[in-house]
Design a protein that fits this description.
Shape of chain A: globular
Number of strands of chain B: 35
Largest interface: A-B, 82 and 75 residues
Structural class of chain B: alpha+beta
Strand content of chain B: 25-35%
Helix content of chain A: 25-40%
Radius of gyration of chain B: 26 Å
Shape of chain B: globular
Distance between the termini of chain B: 48 Å
Radius of gyration of chain A: 24 Å
Largest sheet of chain B: 9 strands, mixed
Oligomer: heterodimer
Distance between the termini of chain A: 72 Å
Number of strands of chain A: 20
């Protein structure tokens, strides 16, 4: 059925498909209402063929790579292809299908080419366009973020593949349902419309592309691209050390009890395939740190991509050699009604997979970064206006030392490396926080021949009352190092330091009053290689710049300055 | 008329310095090139001026486009630059926003290029403002003294950026700190954030200030050398330097504050494009500048090029009005390769050295230019008016062996494939910049310049369904020509961040007036006569909660309802919807403009309409209109006259560039001699 076409035509069609996804991305970014979309890039955009196989994508967050793939298949199983028509917009946020928590609204539309003789007909199904984006509020138990839910019904209103538009007509009742179930209805309805604009753009472009080149040519081009992506991925896997490696790490807690949670993964690279198996990990826990299985699969895709084709756009072919396994009812495969809201497990687990791989290829991989995205949020009534505010920030950590260079200082975690922190001038104007320090911490990077990057210290003084939410899941254990490098100190959140109320906390909702201080300490990256093998000039430069103290230079690196 | 008749424009590129002379008395322009001299860049500039042979004593204006500031950053050639900020925040610049460039998202072992500022050159001093700009703790001058001593005397810092938190609301403590620093160290260059840009967000403001501090020493030396060289040649006119976001500034102003010049490379062509849009009456114009390594595209709406207020330089944010240019790695020198059976074009470029295979300078990989030779668009014997013989056989061999063979295509099919792939890359990007503005590309005229512009633009117009391509005279010198029409411009801004409904619009108007007066003062300092001054006032607005803003021009008095309606309408056009949400005024902006006398576009009377007079020969070449070889009529551009019309397939040759018209397209020569290429009467464009 598919014709053979030349490599120039394939490349032309590929460019058009990618720019369709890019144009969807531009439309979303330009029309979105909430900063989590346009600042944090908490979204994912994908285009599928009529068999629901990925053609092109424009991920926002690193770990949203291919997250829509699982979601659209699961949802269409429920909805039924025969029930979806031209002009429909379908929404799903049921975590077990949508591959994320309930505040990530995934929407998709079918794309049809109407028959010339009957422009009102659905005509030929060409494929689907989809976009997921984080919404600010959909009626979960607490404002802001949910840290301690014990079942999915505390996490927001659930949509199991519900039409928001039906054959081009808005389903007003659903829009009203959303509006009345959100604490921030304007933002949410604004984002809903932004996502629909994004889908309409994609629909238009995909239809144009197929009109321009013909469906057979596009099908042939897509098939060629997929086969090549698959071949490239398999070849790259064959060039890596082959074997099976297991690693364990700990997640701080589930938000309900203080107990650390075991994560375990076994990774196999053999015969051009990669298997990521989370067997041996903790059973699902009572609190909201369980992973929807679709999100777990996305972790495997991110690692595979980083190892095999970091600079190539993804498609269905590139993930064919990947298998991700996790037993239903365990930490990495939540089932109804297990809570999943916090999602931080995925951040920590991403580096767990590398921890396993690094045993087989320490000469290729970096040590662990600070190991987490230390986030915080403050909610309260604004001291100037008395109005409710909720504002958040994600902090930087150090990156791990590499086989041939130091890890970056003070950089976003690998799971969301294009996300930006929030400016202090914005945070101070919109909340009751004042920042007394935001500094790189001397000696915070794990020592090594190539040292880990440094983490930071952030001191927050409150000048109005409210609640402070620290969102961080790796404070109890240190990030791992490689090949004789040293481990850095772990992340730490200290509330009210130097007072009687001083306490080291992990993910927590803390009431704060004017004058209170909270200190966030983020971890550096792990070191790579023996510190004493470090180039003396690099050590003295680090001392001169204040990344390493003279004492550490002497005691750890053996360099008397 | 000015007393001195000549206006000179000199533009430094990566390989050549282009110099253009305009004689105001006759409107005649002359154009010469010299080689770029990276070690002492002023020498190449002076050499180009000498090549022109203009009597500098008779020159009224010397206008200069330079990417020196950009190069200093790219090559890390600036001097030891320090940062003084608040205690506890010395790492504000090094931490930045913590993010990596988008394209590095999956590279978990990324290495950053070396920072512009060493950590030991950063320091914090005690003293703090709150988010209203009120003093929480006064500036600790003793602390500042210690810090300054340490940075300047111990660390050898020669240029320093001063940036305090919330200073955009209250610049007093920054100004006081600068005053002290200058009094202690008269040789130290001090750049103050609120002098550079008075807008919110501490990292972005610091970064902009650091870029200025970093570039200043090197830029000042360059301008000094150039001023001296020009004075030695009896130049007594005005020395202007092109800005990144439109217009120019005097060399004196640029020495003091060079940041507005750093991204001015493509600005000349856009200034020229804006002028052409006005003269030809085109509401929507896309400029399309294709050189050897890249393609720069920019949207011009109602004669005004689109400006972004936040640019990036090597991933450092730059809060400076800058033309919103989309650069695509696809130019005449872009290299074609086969990767896993797929044909890729660019972003690697053969540049000027070794250049395309057909230049015979050692290039071995086929480029877009080689494909053009294989397709028959370029006559190997008359390239650059015969000054450079092209090696067409070698180009054919390279395309055949490296592209056609592996793809199983004929050489011409392969060469056409190279064009197809380049176009596909370009179409997406061009579509983005028009769609971002809420326009359909169909609504645009496309102005093609740069050496390869007219070669590619008619094809791009087909792909984009654009109604018209405009090819100016001497497309390869258009950027330098455009500089001749640059005004003297000053931009000023203030962050406000208040709700439209709560704002005291009288206060907003007063601020705009104050900024207007400051802008006029700056223009007067730059020698602009009051009678030539104009001011543009703008408010940057958004719905509360949005990040992106829209810029609304304020023509008459301020009135909340008018502003709200205009903003809603603009939002609807751009994004397809408007909202009932409150509107926030983010920034007030003022642009002061000192009008310069623009080069006249001479018109010629219509000829007899018979283009046959200019017909030189016919040539077999590849016609994308029918995707097959065809006979192309070859016209000599210098012999075409206004009113001439002809149909594709046709080639219009003018020595430094060739315009390629395919079947389904027609050409009309308008009154200034510009070529207008449109779909022909059958409308067979797409």
């Amino acid at each position: 059925m598919t014709e053979r076409i030349d490599g120039a035509t394939v490349e032309v069609v590929r460019s058009y498909l990618l720019s369709a996804a890019e144009e969807m991305r531009t439309t979303l970014l330009r029309t979105a209402f909430n900063p989590v979309i346009y600042e944090v890039h908490d979204f994912g955009i994908s285009i599928y063929d009529e068999h629901l196989e990925l053609i092109a994508e424009a991920p926002g967050l690193t770990s949203f790579l291919g997250a829509n793939d699982f979601s659209i298949v699961k949802t269409m199983e429920y909805v039924g292809a025969e029930n979806v028509h031209r002009g429909d917009v379908v929404m799903v946020n049921l975590p077990y299908w949508s591959a994320a928590h309930a505040y990530d609204a995934m929407m998709f539309s079918p794309v049809y080419l109407p028959r010339a003789e009957d422009p009102e007909s659905d005509g030929l199904l060409l494929g689907y366009v989809s976009v997921r984006a984080h919404w600010m509020d959909l009626g979960a138990k607490d404002p802001g973020y949910v840290l301690d839910s014990t079942d999915v019904h505390q996490e927001g209103v659930l949509f199991p593949g519900t039409k928001l538009w039906d054959r081009g007509e808005p389903v007003t009742a659903m829009h009203e349902l959303i509006r009345f179930n959100s604490r921030m209805p304007d933002l949410v309805i604004g984002d809903l419309h932004a996502q629909v604009s994004c889908l309409r753009t994609g629909e238009l472009r995909l239809r144009e592309i197929i009109r321009k080149f013909g469906k057979d040519t596009v099908d042939a081009a897509v098939a060629t691209i997929r086969d090549q992506s698959e071949a490239r991925t398999r070849e790259a896997l064959l060039q890596l050390p082959q074997g099976t490696w297991t690693a364990e790490d700990w997640l701080d807690d589930d938000g309900i009890t203080e107990d650390p949670i075991l994560m375990k993964v076994t990774v196999t690279i053999a015969n051009g395939e990669m298997v990521v198996d989370f067997a041996g990990s903790s059973p699902a826990v009572p609190g909201p740190v369980n992973m929807p299985f679709g999100a777990t699969i996305a972790l495997g895709k991110v690692v595979l991509k980083n190892l095999t084709s970091p600079n190539e756009p993804g498609d269905a072919g590139s993930s064919r050699p990947l298998t991700v396994l996790a037993e239903p009812g365990t930490l990495f495969h939540a089932v109804y009604p297990q809570p999943t809201f916090t999602l931080w497990t995925g951040i920590v687990a991403l580096e767990l997979i590398y921890k396993a791989l690094a045993q087989g290829m320490p000469d290729r991989l970096a040590a662990s970064s600070g190991g987490d995205v230390p986030g915080f949020m403050m909610v309260g009534d604004h001291p100037d206006t008395g109005e409710f505010f909720a504002i958040s920030n994600n902090d930087v950590v150090g990156r791990g030392g590499s086989p041939d260079h130091d890890g970056l200082d003070a950089t976003m975690h690998i799971s969301e490396s294009i996300v930006r922190n929030t400016p202090i001038e914005v945070l101070e104007a919109r909340s009751g926080m004042r920042f007394e320090a935001l500094e790189i911490r001397t000696d915070s990077g794990g020592a090594g021949k190539f040292r880990g990057g440094c983490g930071i210290r952030r001191d927050i003084r409150f000048f109005s009352p409210g609640e402070f939410l620290s969102v961080i899941k790796k404070t109890k254990t240190a990030p791992w190092s490689l090949d004789g490098g040293l481990e850095p100190e772990p992340n730490q959140v200290v509330v009210f330091p130097g007072t009687e109320r001083e306490q080291v906390v992990s993910t927590k909702r803390t009431a704060v009053a004017p004058g209170d201080l909270i200190r966030i300490i983020t971890a550096g990256g792990g070191g790579h290689g023996e510190p004493r093998q470090r180039d003396a000039e690099a050590v003295s430069r680090d001392v001169a710049e204040g990344y390493v103290s003279a004492e550490a230079a002497r005691d750890v690196y053996g360099l008397e300055l | 008329m000015t007393a001195r008749p000549y206006h000179l424009a000199v533009d430094i590129g990566g390989t050549f310095v282009d110099a253009m002379e305009l004689d105001q008395r006759t409107g005649v322009v002359r154009f010469r090139k010299a080689s770029t001299t990276p070690a002492a860049p002023w020498e190449g500039v002076l050499a180009a001026v000498e090549a022109l042979g203009t009597d500098l004593a008779e020159a009224e204006v010397f206008i200069h486009g330079t990417t020196l500031g950009l190069n200093a950053v790219l090559e890390r050639r600036g001097g030891a630059t320090g940062i003084i900020t608040n205690a506890g925040l010395r790492d504000i610049f090094l931490i930045g926003r913590g993010n990596l460039p988008d394209e590095q998202m999956y590279n978990f072992q990324y290495e950053r290029p070396p920072s512009l500022v060493q950590r030991r050159h950063t320091a914090g001093v005690r003293g703090r403002l709150d988010h209203h700009g009120e003093v929480l703790e006064p500036l600790d001058e003793d602390d500042l003294r210690d810090v300054a001593r340490q940075l300047v005397e111990e660390q050898g810092v020669i240029s320093v950026a001063v940036c305090f938190l919330h200073s955009y609301l209250n610049p007093e403590s920054e100004q006081r700190a600068a005053e002290l620093l200058r009094s202690w160290y008269p040789e130290l260059k001090v750049s103050v954030s609120t002098d550079v840009v008075r807008e919110y967000r501490e990292y972005e403001r610091t970064s902009t200030t650091v870029l200025e501090a970093y570039i200043r020493p090197i830029f000042e030396r360059y301008v000094d050398e150039l001023e001296r060289g020009l004075a030695d040649r009896d130049f007594a006119g005005r020395f202007l330097i092109m800005r990144s976001g439109g217009g120019s500034m005097t060399s004196d102003a640029a020495k003091h504050s060079p940041t507005p010049t750093v991204l001015s490379g493509p600005a000349g062509g856009i200034v020229g494009g804006s002028y052409i849009a006005e003269v030809l009456g085109r509401d929507n114009l896309l400029t399309f500048d294709i050189g050897g390594t890249s393609l720069d595209a920019c949207v011009i709406e109602q004669g005004t090029a689109v400006i972004t207020h936040e640019a990036e330089l090597e991933h450092y944010p730059l809060l400076m009005p800058t033309y919103d240019i989309r650069t695509i790695g696809a130019g005449g020198g872009s290299i074609a390769t086969i990767e896993r059976g797929l044909l890729k074009v660019g972003p690697r470029s053969a540049g000027a050295q070794p250049g395309p295979v057909c230049y015979g300078r050692g290039g071995t990989e086929p480029t877009v230019t080689d494909a053009a030779v294989v397709l028959g668009y370029v006559d190997p014997d008359s390239f650059l008016s015969g000054r450079m013989r092209l090696h067409d056989k070698e180009a054919l061999t390279a395309v055949t062996e490296q592209i056609a063979g592996p793809l199983g295509l004929t050489p011409r099919e392969a060469a056409a494939g190279i064009f197809d792939v380049m176009l596909a890359k370009t179409v997406g990007a061009v579509r983005q910049i028009t769609v971002e503005r809420g326009h359909d590309p169909k609504a645009f005229s496309l102005l093609a310049f740069g050496g390869a512009g007219p070669l590619v633009a008619p094809l791009l117009a087909r792909e984009l369904n654009v109604g018209e391509v405009i090819v100016p005279f001497a497309p390869s010198g258009f950027s330098a020509w455009g500089m001749l029409s640059a005004d003297v411009v000053t931009d000023l801004s203030r962050t406000r961040m208040e709700l439209l409904d709560e704002a005291d619009l009288g206060d907003v108007a007063a601020e705009l007036d104050e900024l207007g007066r400051d802008a006029f003062r700056s223009l007067a300092d730059q020698g602009v006569d009051e009678s030539h001054m104009a001011v543009e006032r703008q408010l940057e607005l958004r719905y509360l909660g949005q990040e992106h803003t829209l810029t609304l021009s304020i023509h008459a008095g301020l009135d909340a309802k008018t502003i709200r309606d205009a903003f809603n309408e603009m939002h609807r056009v751009r994004y397809g919807h408007s909202m009932d949400n409150p509107i926030q005024i983010l920034t007030s902006r003022v642009r002061g403009i000192g009008r310069t006398e623009r080069p006249e576009l001479p018109t010629s009377p219509a000829g007899d309409g018979n283009a046959a007079r200019a017909l030189v020969t016919t040539r077999r070449a590849f016609d994308f209109g029918i995707r097959a070889e065809a006979d192309f009529a070859v016209f000599d551009r210098s012999k075409l006259e206004p009113g001439d019309r002809f149909r594709g397939p046709a080639l219009v040759d003018e020595g430094t560039s060739t315009t390629v018209v395919h079947s389904g397209q027609q050409v009309m020569v308008e009154e200034h001699g510009y070529l207008l290429i449109t779909p022909d009467s059958e409308g067979a464009f797409a």
